[in-house]
Design goal:
Order of helices and strands: EHEEHHHHEHEEHEEHEHEHEHEEHHHH
Shape: globular
CATH topology of the largest domain: Rossmann fold
CATH architecture of the largest domain: 3-Layer(aba) Sandwich
Radius of gyration: 23 Å
CATH class of the largest domain: Alpha Beta
Number of domains: 2
Helix content: 40-55%
Length: 418
């Protein structure tokens, strides 16, 4: 059996770091040939991959060359039926949607023509399975070609490729057309399955729960001393992550609780790094009972080393949109309580007053302050054990990825034999 894994850039950095773990479990299967096919080269720095995993760059080069024909494909948009269907059903009520619709169809056309040439060179396509890591226009292109070539397609769906509020004008172009010619769509949360059905019309039989996971490194992070609170956040510094709310809440909390020593560490960089550094300096630097560090980009190994060596009371997420954050899975695996909003799949990761505090979706400053004030909850041994128990039950990498791989392999064999 041959699996062709379509990625955005993996194994090239910086994106899709979650695949670093999953690919290890694919490599354990000697009966499956796996080829990774990235659509672009990222920043050209490549991660190491197992020796028995192939890397095929033929479509990458083709895809990149087709991107230079964007003007040509822009003219072809007017010959695509989906353009007029979306124009009448979606865009006419909000013309801000026209630009993302154009971009989406151009991406679809580039993917379609790139894959069409790629497929002509592939042997035994009836024994080939395409696995797309993102449920995007590349997946839709493969769906459009599926009947002609007879392969199977499975796709993962996360957050940016799922939730409308993550997109310009709250619009996910073409998505309602993604429901045909696909063998399975794996959601990383239960919440996502309901969202796909109610918003885009996916049939329940094609939707499967395929949670992501992290490896248990046997780290048991302990709490900080009694009269202190160490808060950790880990994310890209972008608008959607709303890290400024952590700063504002911490400022108000520290000024009204001068007997408590507050420490905040942020792991991660991004476009807003300088702005967040400046805001933190203006808001927190003069407060005597606050110590903070914004460490910038941190490699995953260093994150776990930090969790192993430091005493941490809680992990905080105040994002406006999420799927199932792997950063929260990592914290759970290290026995760290969580404070996070009830959005996406976070409600499956955090049980209020059980392993942390579940905030309302709007993450108001007042609600953050109220949650962080419950210091006893975060230091309690039971709370911290509850975090690890949720990890073991839902986000253990070995169980989740082995089950996922077994499902695809077994279903594919049945289809081939049929």
């Amino acid at each position: 059996m041959k699996i062709i894994l379509i990625t955005s850039t993996f194994p090239f950095k910086p994106a899709e770091e979650f695949l670093e773990t999953e690919i290890l479990f694919w490599a354990e299967r000697s009966d499956i040939s796996v080829s990774i096919v990235p659509l672009s080269f990222g920043n050209d720095r490549m991660r190491s991959i197992p020796e028995n995993i192939n890397l095929d760059l033929s479509i990458t080069r083709k895809f990149m060359s087709e991107l230079h024909k964007a003007l040509f494909y822009g003219l072809q948009v007017f010959f695509v039926k989906y353009f007029y269907i979306e124009l009448l059903s979606e865009v006419k009520s909000n013309w801000k949607k026209i630009s993302p619709l154009f971009s989406s169809i151009i991406s679809y056309l580039i993917s379609y023509h790139s894959f069409k040439k790629f497929l002509k060179r592939q042997p035994k396509l009836n024994e080939t399975v395409f696995y797309t890591y993102w449920n995007n226009e590349a997946t839709f292109a493969l769906q459009s070609l599926k009947k002609r070539y007879g392969y199977q397609i499975f796709s993962r769906i996360h957050g940016h490729d799922l939730y409308k509020n993550r997109r310009t004008a709250g619009y996910m172009p073409l998505k309602k057309h993604f429901t045909k010619n696909i063998d399975g769509v794996f959601t990383v949360t239960d919440n996502a399955r309901e969202y796909l059905t109610s918003n885009y019309g996916f049939e329940g039989k094609v939707l499967k729960l395929g949670r992501l996971g992290v490896i248990d490194r046997k780290i048991k992070t302990g709490p900080a001393s009694q009269n202190s609170l160490h808060i950790v956040s880990c994310s890209h510094l972008s608008e959607v992550k709303q890290i400024h709310k952590v700063i504002e809440a911490l400022c108000k909390l520290a000024l009204s609780n001068t007997h408590i020593e507050y420490r905040w560490t942020h792991l991660g960089g991004g476009l807003l790094y300088e702005r967040i550094q400046r805001l933190a300096s203006e808001s927190l630097a003069s407060i005597k009972n606050v110590n903070y560090k914004i460490l910038g980009v941190v490699e995953n190994e260093r994150v776990f080393r930090f969790y192993k060596e430091e005493q941490i009371d809680l992990f905080i997420n105040v994002s406006m949109s999420e799927g199932a954050p792997v950063t929260i899975m990592e914290a759970l695996s290290c026995h760290i309580p969580i404070v996070a909003p009830d959005i996406g799949g976070i409600g499956e990761m955090v049980i209020n007053n059980h392993n942390g505090r579940l905030l309302n979706s709007d993450c108001s400053i007042e609600s953050i302050i109220e949650a962080l004030s419950d210091i006893e909850l975060f230091k309690r041994e039971e709370t911290r054990m509850n975090s690890h128990a949720i990890y073991l039950n839902k986000y253990d990498a070995r169980r989740n990825y082995v089950d996922f791989i077994n499902f695809i392999a077994d279903k594919s064999r049945i289809e081939v034999q049929a």
